[in-house]
Amino acid sequence: MAEKSFKYVIVGGGVSAGYAAREFAKQGVNPGELAIISKEAVAPYERPALSKAYLFPESPARLPGFHVCVGSGGERLLPEWYKQNGIELILSTEIVKADLAGKTLVSAAGETFKYEILIIATGSTVIKLTDFGVQGADAKNIFYLREIDDADKLVEAIKAKKNGTAVIVGGGYIGLELGAALRINNLDVSMVYPEPWCMPRLFTSGIAAFYEGYYANKGIKIIKGTVATGFSTNAHGEVTEVKLKDGRVLEADIVVVGVGGRPLTTLFKGQVEEEKGGIKTDAFFKTSVADVYAVGDVATFPLKLYNENRRVEHVDHSRKSAEQAVKAIKASEEGKSVEEYDYLPYFYSRSFDLAWQFYGDNVGDTVLFGDNNPESPKPKFGSYWIKDGKVVGAFLEGGNPEENKAIANVARVQPPVESLDLLKNEGLAFASKI
Ligand code: FDA
Ligand code: NAD
């Protein structure tokens, strides 16, 4: 079988890989030095589009429209761009074996790839209901969403089950974005999740109440405090019903499951130090193994602002960590160094006409401010998180670019707060004056 050698190999062809490639090109890379090896059949693209504009019934986003780096306002890297820059895109190629000591990767088809420097950018995979043995969870028309192939299957099903019934299992990011997308496609949507409110990883009960009210007004039925325990199927093996733990049974032509992700570290188990479920790195995304870097969803890195190692499963960090790793690689080749990664966590989501942003850390006391009536024509509200007398996190729904910048700034500066009541009364004005 063929063996190929490269100076730099990026394993994984998602968001991080694309932004890393752009940074390599900026810093200067010779033709044939860099390869991206991806399981997916297409060049790196902005994954967030898959749960949003990709599913629109009218003028949906399609490739090549959302290849990286359009998501952060940059130029699109089309497949030709990689060619022009002498970067080899090795697509539809899954790496099944990694030997970090031997600096070798092996694909499912048996090809061998040698590298001098490796960047691990394998991202996350979905947790499946079959992983915990839910009865009937392998039925047809039960979907997960991670890659473009998954999105294409879902789009087909939406067409085939026109005006049908959909059940969303999970009340996190996928649950909320897909609930909206399927409703926009005129399906009758129910959402089921075990927690007392949606997005408990980030939302306070006050924030969640707004979204749950807004979704209910759009005709989405929300069922909380229970889980799916089984599925019924028809003679074709297609899902027809979702059975809930509390005894209720919901009709379903389509089921979308979003019950969390898991970083794809299995290839490297036992070969590299791990922490908090990810591959441990330093502030330059260097792992415990020489010449091996890890970026994006798989990296557990020092979050300097909070003096703690963390893993972040969001697109802004995947872009920035990739750029940081490449800058560090190039600098060290010249005997130079770069500044430590100093990341301010930034998460966002969009659904229906809504758009929120969050910056910082969601710990400590919370203060809700603004107009969070789901029936308002233009709701605008937010929340601050306060720890040790300082604002450490800020959330804003419906903000304009300037206001979003203000909440980012407040989370970075961490100004002291005299009283929570004062903060509540001032609301967004508090952030705007910092
Ligand atoms: P990413 O998952 O992008 O890429 C990993 C790549 O590695 C994939 O191409 C995969 O096929 C490949 N791969 C894995 N194992 C391999 C192997 N063994 N061999 C070869 N290739 C392999 N975030 C946010 O902040 N705002 C948002 O709105 C959204 N929206 C969103 C929607 C959807 C549907 C998803 C799934 C995720 C989001 N996210 C998000 C999260 C964000 O997309 C995510 O954090 C980044 O894509 C992570 O980038 P990575 O490069 O680490 O992984
Ligand atoms: P998540 O962690 O956001 O949410 C998982 C949810 O699953 C929990 O909130 C809970 O409600 C639910 N849950 C857990 N077990 C359940 C069960 N047995 N039955 C029913 N519900 C159950 O994960 P996700 O929404 O699946 O997203 C997957 C990945 O994609 C994450 O990495 C996420 O960051 C990423 N993503 C991000 C965005 C964004 O940032 N806007 C959008 C989409 C996806």
UniProtKB/TrEMBL annotation:
Top-level taxon: Eukaryota
PANTHER family referenced in this protein's UniProt entry, alphabetically: APOPTOSIS-INDUCING FACTOR 1, MONODEHYDROASCORBATE REDUCTASE 1, PEROXISOMAL
EC number: 1.6.5.4
Database matches in InterPro entries: FAD-oxidoreductase/Apoptosis, FAD/NAD-bd_sf, FAD/NAD-binding_dom, FAD/NAD-linked_Rdtase_dimer_sf, MDHAR3-like_C
Keywords for the protein's UniProt record, in alphabetical order: FAD, Flavoprotein, NAD, NADP, Oxidoreductase, Redox-active center
Assigned GO CC terms: cytoplasm
Catalytic activity: 2 monodehydro-L-ascorbate radical + NADH + H(+) = 2 L-ascorbate + NAD(+)
Lineage: Eukaryota, Viridiplantae, Streptophyta, Embryophyta, Tracheophyta
Root EC class: oxidoreductase
Record-given protein name: monodehydroascorbate reductase (NADH)
Domain FAD/NAD(P)-binding span(s) in chain numbering: 6-321
Job of this protein: Catalyzes the conversion of monodehydroascorbate to ascorbate, oxidizing NADH in the process.
Organism whose genome encodes this protein: Parasponia andersonii (Sponia andersonii)
